[in-house]
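[job 0412] stage=fold_complex status=start
inputs:
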Amino acid sequence: MTTRIAAILLPLLLLAGWEGYCRWSGIPALVLPPPSAVGAALWSGLASGRLLPHLAVTAAEMALGLGIGCLVGFVAGVALAEVAGLRRLLYPYVIASQVVPKLALAPLFILWFGFGMTSTVAITALICFFPLLENTLTGLDRVDPAKRELFRMLRAGRWRTLTRLKIPSGLPVILAGLRVAVVLALVGAVVGEFIGGRQGLGASIIAAQGMMDTPLMFALFAVITALGMLVYQATLLIERWLLSRQAKG
Amino acid sequence: MPTDPPAFLSFENVRFDYSGAAIVDGVDWAVGRGAIHCLLGRSGCGKTTLLKLAAGLFTPATGRVRLDGAAVCGPGDAVGFVFQAPTLLEWLTVLDNVLLPVTLHRRATADDRARALDLLELVGLAGLADRGPRALSGGQQSRVALARALIADPALLLLDEPFAALDALTREELQEDLLRLCAQRGTTALFVTHDIAEAVYLGDRVAVMADGQLRHSLSIDLPRPRPRDLRYDPRFNALCRELRHAMDGATGLRRAEAAE
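[job 0412] stage=fold_complex status=done
writing structure:
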């Protein structure tokens, strides 16, 4: 009970402190706007519907990038886990592609895909690719040897061993990779828009900066945070649902 | 070596090496149809390897394993294997675990499901079919593993210390259930254990293994079916003592060889 009260009080206290500091210190709103101004900017953006298309664009980029990156990462992870030769051959390149800061590739992507959604989706997908690949590899590798022997004894072929043993037993690890990818996807989408976006929450932040509209920038941070938390919680729900379905059979 | 009736399972001078060392070193053995034989030995004597050779999981370096006259060259339909650990798939229900040997190759029919439920009842798990394996005790998990090994109605059952991790009472119950199931279905069984009493209670014949070789064998002339109280019979104890001496002798021989 006390923690619940504290959970409600803490943000209120922080907001009140922030508001009070802005009022009494005389700090210009351009540097640090009071939460009331941020709230007003947020409300006018949402009520007028100006923010919604940007939210939709960022959410779409995030979803597309996440979907493509995770799918390709999963399939590549399965291929590299199943074919040892392929893994020895390609893994160094995979590592190299990940060591390159992907945002440094953004100018190149803009050259290839143009300004706008495509290049942001490409960056997001590239960022999401690796956690899924890595966790799929680890998950499929970490199968109990006794279970492998059981499947050998039951004359299960390669495909059956993969779908009936390796993927189900690696699923918790694979889903942990998905959770990491979800967080990175939002970063990818927003920062991708910083560089090459015309629309979207990231592009709006750059625009607001240009207009020196700091309250709007804060309002956009709030929207991005809310979007991230929503998607993260949704991922947790999907994860829990998949694993409980698995536990029940 | 009883060779008069054609053996159902036979090892003919079987040898298996692992990184240069002989794990199984020239084993000759035959198990008649419907018989239960036990391989008794300390950890690391090669008894599990011998069992996996019989299963076709390993291929002998020299010699041959025959099942019903044909050379074994890979895991087959006619063989059920019960591993040391129950090795159940946690993401499947008890019923689906029992059906796994079927569903890996084709869709399970209503008939398969009925057979699996019958087997679960026979091993005393009626009513637990929809549970997950994590909700079961160790003994119950071993019972599921036994039911899974029997679902394809194998002619030969290979068991690798399946009850070793269980408490003494549960172990005895499972031994009794195993004998009952094998007798009902006429299943031939080769049972690996390090527990002398278990070997005597289950086996028609017990072979003592040490250093990859069969050093001693003993016919167990006790009545079948074997009542629970048989374990306290003087004849039972005498057989246990004889096997214990044989095991000590086998180890003694090893020490003598080492000293040479």
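[job 0412] summary: The mean pLDDT of chain A is 90.
[job 0412] exit 0
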